[in-house]
Amino acid sequence: MFKEEVAERYKQIQDEICRGLEIADGKGKFEEEVWERNGGGGGRTRIMQNGAIIEKGGVNFSAVHGKLPDAIKKAFNVTEEDFFATGVSIVIHPNHPLVPIIHMNIRYFELNEETRWFGGGIDLTPHYVFENDARFFHHKLKQACDDFNPEFYSKFKSQADEYFFIKHREETRGIGGIFYDRLKPDNTNLSWQDILDFSINIGETFLPIYTELIDRNRDKDFTEIQKEWQYQRRSRYVEFNLVYDSGTKFGLETNGRIESILMSLPPQANWGYNVQPEINSDEFITQQWLKKGINWI
User: InterPro entries, alphabetically (predicted)?
Assistant: First the structure.
């Protein structure tokens, strides 16, 4: 069946990314916890902690099924109850303030033959925004999108700008990326198989992008001020994930596994009171980049 093929290919993506990140880190190893969900299905949570460059990273796979809670049925505007959902979710928090946080999610949801879709995306949250890194990141995402539809990148980039906007701070979480949801044949002009291939293509884009960004920045010296700024930027990441992130909400409302859902949070973050960077400092300049609609191509 199609959903079994999706789940199997997502498992392969998880395996490939974990192997590649262990090589890139050079020290850390992923620890795996296989879990089962009350109500149906389960997953493989893989966490790396205290690596050479990855302070805390999660590469999670899940394939769950069961009955949709009423709140989710109402949000999705459906009456059916029996759902299936599978995906890979990744968040990497580096220990180096000049290496960015990265997030990726690819997922498939199914209620029945008519009500099913793909979603996902990749976004980057640098503690310090470097233009060349940002352009490299967006260029690679555009290439991955253009392989399937030349309109995908601009549409999904705009959706990422909107989705990863921290309204109560009036700033974006980082430099965005791509975000898409509810992709199906009637809104993509692609077959279900093509959309799955697109989803896998996005998954396969993750590793070469992030290993390049690690290698560009991991050997740079940094100061205590930069380390403190990293903790401050991490707090914005926490705020977004707990207040706005739809994956977090879905996981909590469908009786998901708490440790897997909240693996996206960094090991340490700071909430200094009314932190205002010095005018024209690197920290101040980074804040100027945290806006919607920047053309990085």
Answer: Coprogen_oxidase_aer (IPR001260), Coprogen_oxidase_aer_sf (IPR036406), Coprogen_oxidase_CS (IPR018375)
The per-residue DSSP string of the chain comes to -HHHHHHHHHHHHHHHHHHHHHHHHSS---EEEEEE-TTSEEEEEEEEES-SSEEEEEEEEEEEEEEPPHHHHHHHT----EEEEEEEEEEEEESSTTSPEEEEEEEEEESSSSSEEEEEEEEEE-SS--HHHHHHHHHHHHHHHHTT-TTHHHHHHHHHHHHTEETTTTEESSS-EEEEEEE-HHHHS--HHHHHHHHHHHHHHHHHHHHHHHHHHTTS---HHHHHHHHHHHHHHHHHHHHT-HHHHHHHHTT--HHHHGGGS-S-----TT--PPTTSHHHHHHHT--TT----
Instruction: State pLDDT tens for residues 4-55.
Output: 999 999 999 999 999 999 999 999 999 999 999 888 899 999 999 999 999 9
Tens-digit pLDDT profile for residues 147-187: 999 999 999 999 999 999 999 999 999 999 999 999 999 99
- pLDDT tens-place string over residues 41-99: 999 999 999 999 999 999 999 999 998 877 777 777 777 788 999 999 999 999 999 99
- 127 among known catalytic residues: no
> Does residue 161 contact residue 180 with C-beta atoms inside 8 Å?
no
CATH class of 1-289: alpha beta
The pTM (predicted TM-score) of the whole model is 0.94
Where are the domains positioned within the chain? 1-289
Which of 65, 93, 96, 103 is the catalytic position? 103
